[in-house]
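Model: Ready when you are.
Researcher: Fold this.
Model:
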Amino acid sequence: ATSAWSAVLVDAHQRAVLHQLEPGLLCGADGGCEQVLASSWSVVAGVPVSAPAIFAFGAIAVLGALVAADRVSAEKAAGTAFWTSALGLVASVGMLAIMLGGIGHVCRYCLVLDALVLLTTAASAFLHPRGPAAVVGALPSALPGLVGIGAVTAVGAAVFSLVVPEPADPSIAIVVIDEGDPEPQVPEGTRVLTVPRAVIPSPLTPATPTRGPADAPLQVVVFEDFECPFCRRLTRNLHAVVDEQPDRWRIAFRHYPMHTACNPGVSRDLHPDACAAATAAVCAERQGRFWEMYDALFGQEGLSRADLERRAGELGLDPQAFTACLDDPAASAPVLADARQGRALGVSGTPTLYINGRRFVGNLPVAALKALGDALADRPAPAVAPRPASTGPEETLGPVDAPATVELQGPRGPFTIDAFEASIEDGVAVSRPGVEPARGIGWAQADAACRAAGRRLCTEDEWLVACTGAPQEDTDGDGLFSESITGRAHPYGKTYDPGRCASSRARQDPRPLLTGEHPSCGTPEGVYDLEGGVKEWVGLTVDRAALQGGSYYSRDSARCAYHKEADPTETDPADGFRCCAGPEPEIADHHPGGKVGDTATAWSLPLVGGGTIGSDTLAGKPYVLTFWASWCEPCRKELPELAKMYGELDGALEIVAVDIDEVPQRGEQWLRKTPLPFPIGVDPGGRFMAGWDTRGTPTSFWVTAEGAIRQRTIGYDDKRPQVLREHAAALLGVR
C-alpha cells in the first residue's frame, strides 16, 4: 500500500508541475498540495522525492511474498522491513518539517504517505517472531537486506529519472479572443485566452523598477512574491520572451508578498520569508542592483537572513549598508506601498500582471505570452494623466511668499494649519518659509511648542484633510484614518513625482532642509512640505502620537497616507511637526487598560513549556510586556538586547515576551536557537495583543509596580539599547 501510494504521489507531482506550466495558476489563499508537489523541494537530483519509496516499499512487499513462500525467514524479513521503514519515517519527518517551515503549506496526500510509512514501521515490529523489542537488536542481521533494498532503490530511482523525466514547458497552441466574443471551436490541446475588456492606466510610478525600452509596445507590470513558485515560473517565461524579442517588452516589478506583516491586503501568512525577501530587493535597489537581486531571489532556493546576506555578497553589494537596510523600518515602506496599490487594483494572489493595462492572473507559459504580445502590441494602455514636469532631480526655487497659516474645513468645522513645517524659537512653534524646520524632537516637545504658541498638534484626520483635500473616515472604527484615504494621494496630485518635494535624498544628505523651498510641493490650498522634509508628529494625546507624511529620504513611500505608529520619545533627525488650531475631537477611549496612562487590565497568558503568567503573578513588581513574532526581524534584534538588560538588572525588572506567531511552533523553533532568560507567553494570531494599543511588532509596554502603563516603545533601531536602559531606570525609580 505504501509503495502504491508513493506512485500516486509521483503522478500527483507530475500533474502539479504540468499544472504549473498551464496559464492562470497563482499563489493565493487556497494553497496546498499543488504548491507542495510543484515546489523545488519535491525533487532531488531530478527525481520526485516520493519515487524512491515505490522501490523501497515494493521491495518490502517482495520480502513478504518470499516469507509466505518460505524462501526467507520471517525474523530476517521483519528486521529488514523495520529498519527500511524507520529510515523512510525519518525522511517523512524531514519533509513534514520542510512543508511547515520551508514551503508554508501542508499537503494531505503527503500526510497519508507519512501515516502509511508509520504503519509499515509498526507492523514490521509487531510481526517479528520474537516481538517488537527484538527488532532493535536485529540491525546487524538486517544490514545485508538494507544494502540490497538500498541498491534496488538507487537503481530504480535512476531508471525512473531517465524513463519519466520532469515535465517540460509544453508547446501548447494558444488562441486569443476579446472578452465578450464567442469562444471558437479549437483543436484538442489548444488553449483559449481571453483579453479583458477593462483597461486601466498602467500601474507604474516613476520609482517602479523597470527593464526594457521605455517606448516598447508591450508594457508589463507584474505583482509578484519572491517565495511564490508560480512567480518563479512566470519570471523564467518572461526572461525567455524578452531574450527573444528584447525591443518589444518592458517589464516593471511591483511587490505583493503573501504575508500579513508587510501586506495588509492578504488574510493568511502563506510565505514566511516573503517580507524579508521583498525588503532585500528594496535594499539592493538602494545600491542600484535591483534586477540582479531579483534574478538571484528567483533563481536560487533559500530566503533566510543568511541566504539574503550571502546573495548580497555574491552581487558585490556593500555588506554593512545592506545589513543596515534590512533592519531599517523605512525599507519596508515601498513594499507596503506596492501591496496597497495592488490591493486597490484587486490583486488577490501572485503573480498578477498587467499587459498594456489588461489584467491577467497566474503563470503564463511562453506560448501564451507570445500570443498575448501579438494581440496587444498595437493596443497600448491609456496614458496616465499628464502632470507638470519637475525642473530637476529636486525642484528648489527658493521659499514661497505665503501666509503662516491656512484655514480649511475640517471634520469638526473650520480649523487652521501651519502652512510650513514648524521651527522653534525660544520654545515657541513658528510657521515661516525659508528656515530650517525643527528636527530630532519627540512628541512631547512638539506638543509643548505648539501649546506655547497658543495652538496644538494636528489630529491625524486634520492633517489628512490638508494633504488630500478631502475629509477622511475611520472606516473600521480603530481610530485611524490613513488606512484608506480619498482625494489626493500626494499634496500635489494622485501620482508620485520624485522631483516635487524633498523626499528622494540620501539619509546623510548634507544639504539643508528649508521650509517652503519647493513651491510645487504645496497643495492648491497653500500648505507646503506635507510630503518629504520631516515626518510630522500628530495626535493630541501620547497614546495617539504618530508620524505623518514621510521624510526627506522616504522616496516613493512619502505620501499623504504615510502613517507611522511611533514611540513618542523618538528623536530621529527626520522627525518634526506643524501646529493646528480649531475644534478638538472628543477623546475616544481606545484600548482601555492597554495604553499609556491607563492602569493595565488584569490579564493571564499560557507560557511556552507549560504554566501561566499574568498581572496577578507580577503584582507589586514593575515589568515589561513585549509583543514579538519569529518572522519579525526587528523583534529578533530587540529580544537579545532585552535579555542582556534583564541580566544586568538581576531580576529587578520582569520581562514577559509574548509570541504572536499563528503557529507557536515557529516561535519555539527560534527560541531553541536563541534561548531567552525571561518568561515567554503564547498568543497565537495576536488575540491578546489586540487589547493593547499596538498594531505591529515589536511593541513593548512598560508597567509600574502599581500596574500603571508608563511607556510604550515601538520598533527597533541602533539607539534602542540605550533607550531601553533609560526606560528601565525610569521605571525602577517609580514605586
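Researcher: Now this one.
Model:
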Amino acid sequence: MSKGSGLREEQTSLRGEDAPAKRLGLVAASGGAGEPQPLPVQHGREHCSTEVSVILPVHNAASWLEECLQSVFQQDFQGTMQLSVFNDASKDESLNIVEKWKPALEDRGIHVIVSGHDSPQPKGVGYAKNQAVSQSSGKYFCFLDSVTVVYVKLSQW
C-alpha cells in the first residue's frame, strides 16, 4: 500500500463514525436526518444571575487604570454586571486604585471581585484572564485590558 492511499483511507475514516468531533464528544448521535447534532454547552453558567462579567487582567497599570475603571463606571447597561479583576503581581499602585474604585462601582450596582498573586514574576495576561474568568459568574464575558477605555455602551449590544 502506498503512502497516498493510506492517507486517503485515513481521510475517509475521519468523515465517518470516527470523526474528530464525535470522538471528542462535541456532537451527539444523528438527529434523524443523518446529521450529527451539537451537544449543548455545559459550562456551569446556564442559571447565573449575573448577565455580564467584565474581565480585567491587571499588571502595573496604575497610569491607565483610573480612566479604564471610569469607563466601566459610566456604562448604562441595565442588566446585572460584575467586574472581575485579577492582579498579576503588580508592583505599582494598581491594586490600590482598584480598591479605591470598588465602593463607587458597587454603589452603581456593579459587583466587584478582586484577586491576584504577589509572586516576584507575573504569570502573563492569558493566565490573568483565565483566573478572572474562573472567579466570574456572568452569562456573557466582556474582555477589557487595563489600558483600554470602553467608549461603546454595553447597552447598545
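Researcher: Key takeaway?
Model: The CA atoms of residues 64 and 147 lie 5 Å apart.
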